[in-house]
Amino acid sequence: MRSVRKCSRTGCLEPAVATLTYAYSDSTAVVGPLATASEPHSYDLCEAHALRLTVPKGWEVVRHEGEFAHPDPSNDELTALAEAVREAGRSDKPAVNPDDEGPSGRRGHLRVLPGRLN
């Protein structure tokens, strides 16, 4: 399943609409439309971060002119979302009752072991 790519900036959860790449030999940062695939030496940016990007003194920024297009959800994303909603709404899943889990009292990744108090 392919998911919507998020902005590479720490703490930003917005969807990416642009790709930032650097041409170090030319001291240039290039902000263009979102690349079709994520590359290891490029950064996906949301619209706000793509428009506010600043570079070090002596560097140049080459920006895409016009508005950035938001990526359309793919059929894979829509299918995954529909399946997740369908799974969450299933009524045939047995309910787990923690009292029915036996003498160990196992709940999730923890369990209570019988022991003595001195």
List keywords for this structure.
four-stranded mixed β-sheet; about 15% helix; about 120 residues; elongated; alpha+beta; single chain
Quickly give the structural class: alpha+beta
| Total strand segments | 4
What fraction of the residues are assigned to beta strands by DSSP? Answer: 15-25%
By DSSP (H or I, 4+ residues per run), the number of helices equals 2
Which shape, going by the Cα principal axes? elongated
Strand arrangement, major sheet: 3-1-2-4
SSE arrangement, N to C: EEEHEH
Helical percentage: 10-25%
The gyration radius over C-alpha positions equals: 24 Å
The averaged pLDDT comes out at: 76
Low-confidence stretches: none
Report the sheet with the most strands, covering strand number, pairing sense and barrel closure: 4 strands, mixed
Q: End-to-end distance, in Å?
A: 55 Å
Write the layout of secondary structure elements.
Blueprint: E1 18-23, E2 28-33, E3 43-45, H1 47-52, E4 60-63, H2 75-88
Parallel strand pairs: 2-4
Antiparallel strand pairs: 1-2, 1-3
Question: What's the short version?
Answer:
With 118 residues, the chain is of the alpha+beta class. Helices cover 17% and strands 16% of the residues.
Plain-language structure description:
The protein is built from 2 helices and 4 strands; from the N terminus they run βββαβα. It is α+β, with helices and mostly antiparallel strands. Strand 1 and strand 2 form a beta hairpin.
